[in-house]
Amino acid sequence: MIPSRLFSARPQVMLEGVGFWMLAARVVPGPSCLLLLRASPRLLSVSCADCTKHQEPPRKQPLSEKKLKQHFVDHRRVLVRGGHGGNGVSCFHSEPRKEFGGPDGGDGGNGGHVVLRVDQQVKSLSSVLSRYQGFDGEDGGRKNCFGRNGAVLYIRVPVGTLVKEGNEVLADLSRPGDEFIAAVGGTGGKGNRFFLANDNRAPTTCTPGQPGQERVLFLELKTVAHAGLVGFPNAGKSSLLRAISNARPAVAAYPFTTLNPHVGIVHYEDHQQIAVADIPGIIQGAHQNRGLGLAFLRHIERCPFLLFLVDLSVPEPWTQLDDLKYELEQYDEGLSKRPYTVVANKIDLPQARARLPQLQAHLGQEAIALSAATGENLEELLLRLKELHDHHVATELEQGRQPLRW
Ligand SMILES: Nc1nc2c(ncn2[C@@H]2O[C@H](COP(=O)(O)OP(=O)(O)OP(=O)(O)O)[C@@H](O)[C@H]2O)c(=O)[nH]1
Ligand SMILES: [Mg+2]
């Protein structure tokens, strides 16, 4: 028996449906409004007060897959340069009756660092520019005035950004709020006051500010999620993600509809959130660059557990699992050995339902049979997802690591 209060994915979907019907009822013009429209065409431009009062502001349309594709960037080459240090100043204090007041040139301020900072609101590297120049430090001034330090320049990057210089990995920004100093600001120069010594009471020396550090970094995004959805094209990965989460990847009856990874969050009643990543479909021979190749598999490298989605509507569906595992192994050894569960989709189709016992027999294990389209048996998947998540949390804590939190 499955406790119905454990998760809230279906009620949410139903609530959305209720919202839609309420909205539809409101925008239908009332009879008085129709009368007005028929009576005088000139009144058409004047909206009915009754209707406008209840009309809701137009909702923001979700981005289509095509637009997301334009905006989704998962690697970037960036030139970063720290701010230049301010120059030290050489000058002497002088006032009436104190003609030789000594050196009073202040130091220049330090140049500002350029810092990469993880921001959960940022979903891709598309907002990252190709070059960044940090803020310069201010020059020193008279009367021992020190220049102001350059402010830190923050570059906002998504969770899961890998920072590389050449082949060396410098940082792995996998948690919200993580920061990495990409380029250090130059130090400020010294004013002549700094060089005052017993044997030199009137130094004229001052030093210029140092240029900031400059380097070329390669940023690579590896999506961070708890579960990775792996399956052949058209298996229904995006449909399933839409059914269990608030993500809205495009769904269509042709292969390779999804070209970029999408992350959806499954909300449970105990406020637990599990992130599920839908990645483009894999086909046989993907490791030889067939289909979309395997480059996008980096997006499931960070998923501690996997959901293998098998399409029951095609003959011999069990071969899909072997092929998927093989391709994953080709990409990264051990990837297919992560904790996983097999999900058999499209159970609503009669021929698919008939293949289920055969699939179970071939796999030698239970597969979760469901329908992403009708929502049948989604509860079992949600429970299994929670189990996998709890297991992941327990093993991470056992090994003294912090489990991934969303
Ligand atoms: N009958 C039935 N059709 C489904 C079900 N799930 C998905 N489909 C259909 O299968 C087709 C492919 O669905 P998608 O969700 O786009 O499949 P995908 O795995 O994301 O495909 P790619 O993005 O190309 O890899 C669509 O026409 C869906 O309507 C299901 O449970 N039952
Ligand atoms: Mg898809």
Automatic annotation (TrEMBL):
The keyword Phosphoprotein does not apply. It is a peripheral membrane protein. Keywords: GTP-binding, Membrane, Mitochondrion, Mitochondrion inner membrane, Nucleotide-binding, Ribosome biogenesis. GO terms for molecular function: GTP binding; GTPase activity; magnesium ion binding. GO terms for cellular component: mitochondrial inner membrane; mitochondrial ribosome. Transmembrane segments: none annotated. Residues 225-390 form the OBG-type G domain. Residues 70-224 form the Obg domain. One of its GO terms (biological process) is regulation of respiratory system process. Associates with the mitochondrial ribosome large subunit; the association occurs in a GTP-dependent manner. Belongs to the TRAFAC class OBG-HflX-like GTPase superfamily. OBG GTPase family. Plays a role in the regulation of the mitochondrial ribosome assembly and of translational activity. Displays GTPase activity. Involved in the ribosome maturation process. This is Mitochondrial ribosome-associated GTPase 2. It comes from Bos taurus.
